[in-house]
Amino acid sequence: QVHLVESGGGLEQPGGSLRLSCAASGSIFSIYTMGWYRQAPGKQRELVAVITSGGTTNYADSVKGRFSISRDNAKNTVSLQMNSLKPEDTAVYYCNAHYSGTLREYDYWGQGTQVTVSS
User: Fold this and answer.
1) Spatial separation of the C-alpha atoms in residues 73 and 69, rounded to whole Å
2) Residue 69: alpha-carbon gap to chain centroid
């Protein structure tokens, strides 16, 4: 079991920056692939960025070059640095922990944090 708590959302102007953080507790954090997803009103939840236990990263095309995901296994945290924000980045952002076990997949979600990009 993994408990995830996001922080760092808010209102930012286009072109600005925000940093989201996700604190994890309850299990061996380092074995999980950690990800950030977002869901805008009326749209499906979509992948923003992931980082594997080995540190490999992957990004949605829409955020490549603007967002950066990182993790600190000693502190059980994963962060998303968001630069050059656009209005279309407005969404609720969710932290995810994923692990592929021998018999099943494990997925845990945070409660989400609102990011609004508007002038």
Assistant:
1) 13
2) 7
107: three-class secondary structure by DSSP:
strand
Q: In this structure, are residues 70 and 78 in contact, taking their beta carbons and an 8 Å threshold? A: yes
Instruction: Please list, in sequence order, all residues whose beta carbon lies within 8 angstroms of the beta carbon of residue 31, skipping any fewer than 6 positions away.
Output: 53, 99
Tell me the per-residue pLDDT of 52-69, one tens digit each, with 9 for 90 and over.
999 999 999 999 999 999
Which tens digit of pLDDT belongs to each residue from 8-48? 999 999 999 999 999 998 778 888 999 999 999 999 999 99
3-state helix, strand, coil in the chain (%, to 5): 5, 55, 40
- Torsion from C-alpha of 96, 55, 117, 61, nearest 10 degrees: -100
Q: How far apart are CA 18 and CA 71, in angstroms?
A: 16
Burial class (CB in 10 A: 0-12, 13-18, 19+), 52: middle
